[in-house]
Amino acid sequence: MQKDNVNILIAPRITEKGAYLSANGVYVFNVAVDANKHDIMTAVKKIYNVTPRKVTVVTVPRKVVATRGTNRKGASSGGKKAYVFLKKGETIEIM
User: Fold this and answer.
1) In angstroms, rounded to a whole number, what is the distance separating the alpha carbons of residues 57 and 55?
2) pTM, full prediction
3) Three-state SS for 19?
4) Which residues contact 38 (CB under 8 A, 6 or more apart)?
C-alpha cells in the first residue's frame, strides 16, 4: 500500500532543542503514528529535495493534564516525532 508523502510529515517541530539541532544538520518533525523510517525518508526526499543520511523515530507518550481552578483532568494527545539527519552541506528552509 502506497502512503501519501504529505500525510506522513505533519509539521516541523519548532522548539529550542530543534533550533539547536538544525544548526548541526538535524531536523525534527511531527510524523504520522503509523509512519516508519523508510516512509519518513522518502517523504523528506520528495518534499524538501534533500537526502537524509539517517532517521530516528521517537514515540511521544500521552500525559495526564489537570486544568487549574477546576477538578477536570484530561490527556495530551502524544504521537510520534522523527529526527532527520541530513548529508553535510544540505539544509531545509523552515519558515
Assistant:
1) 7
2) 0.83
3) helix
4) none
Residue 65, beta-bridge partner list? 74
Judge contact between 87 and 44, C-beta under 8 A. Answer: no
Residue 62: φ, ψ to 5°: -70, 145
Round to whole Å and give the CA distance between 26 and 12.
12
Is the domain defined by 5-86 classed in CATH 3.30.70.330? yes
Place of cell 539544509: 91
Q: How far is CA 86 from CA 6, 27, 63, 74, 93, in A?
A: 19, 8, 31, 37, 13
41: confidence class by pLDDT, cuts 50, 70, 90: very high
Over residues 27-49, mean pLDDT: 93
Annotated domain spans of the chain: 5-86
